[in-house]
Amino acid sequence: MVAAAVVTGFVVLKDDGEKTSAQDDPKPPASAPASGPASPSPSAGGSSTPDPSGGGRGDDDGVKPVIDGWKPVISTKRLAVFDVPPDWKVEPGMSSGFLDDKGKSVISMSSVASYKDGACKANNSLGGTGTKGAQGAKSEADAAETEALSWVWAAFDQKKTGRFAGTKAKPFSSDHGVSGYTSSATVTGVAKSDACATDGKAFTLTFKNKENDLVTWVLYSAKGVKDEVPDDVIKKIMSSMRPLPSAS
Fold first, then answer.
1. Where does residue 206 rank: exposed (0-12), middle (13-18), buried (19+ CB within 10 A)?
2. 26, 106 in Cβ contact below 8 A?
3. What is the pLDDT at residue 121?
4. How large is the average pLDDT for residues 5-21?
5. Is 90 helix (H, G, I), strand (E, B) or coil?
6. If we measure between CA atoms, which residue out of 64, 134, 63, 56 comes closest to residue 95?
7. Cβ atoms of 244 and 216 closer than 8 Å
8. DSSP 178-199
9. Among 115, 183, 202, 209, which is least packed by CB within 10 angstroms?
10. What is the Cα–Cα distance from 184 to 35, expressed in whole angstroms?
């Protein structure tokens, strides 16, 4: 049986709606209980939409994974590449994010990959990952912390019915030439407003690409369900982050 508790409110968006500043994203209070009644999570809808601003390349362009058997996720917009396990669905030319209950985009990222699409309802998944801009953030550490909390809020608990907790950003360096700061966040005790509502978690990494632009990688996952993305898999995905090779 497929687990009932999954990410709710997933919708694919055009990249021109992508937020480019981490400071623009809603940030729930960390480590504090939220008050107020439970209400329906954001409406799911739509299908994969092409990114009109050059979000990614296909996987047949010579970029190879650095983790054997995995698949590269390539962002020409952010000049970055990372790998995901073979059972993830890679959508390099797409953007995705979440809407509020009024249908307004609250957060998004581009060059994405998703995990177990349709696990509860059409257009729902157990998790997703991608990259986005962070221009305007106070620092790499600030962007990483803000985005981690923002994504668990947007994906799992926009009505703030649960308890949010975020970690202090820590320095990070991959073996492939990327250095920055990483953070994570969780929301637990989310009100079960429907069959797909669940607790959640997010991991982030903010760094400067080779054009000196701030970039944030994000991975969010349902928490406390059978097929939750394990933390060690998330960290392995993050470890594969690297600059996009120049096109030949």
1. buried
2. yes
3. 73
4. 38
5. strand
6. 56
7. no
8. -EEEEEEEEEES----STT--E
9. 209
10. 23
What are the CA-CA distances from residue 156 to residues 23, 69, 105, 171, 221 (Å)? Answer: 20, 31, 15, 27, 9
CA distances from 61 to 52, 73, 109 (A): 19, 12, 22
- Does 170 score more than 80 pLDDT? yes
- The label of the residue with tokens 């729930």 reads 28
* Model confidence pTM above 0.85: no
| CB-CB contact of 222 with 198 (8 Å) | yes
Query: What is the structure's pLDDT at 242?
Result: 97
Residue type, 79: L
Token pair 């998330």 is found at 234
Residue 93 corresponds to which tokens in the numbers above? 């030319």
Tokens of 156: 């799992």
Residue 155 DSSP label: H
Q: How confident is the model at residue 221 (pLDDT cuts 50, 70, 90)?
A: very high
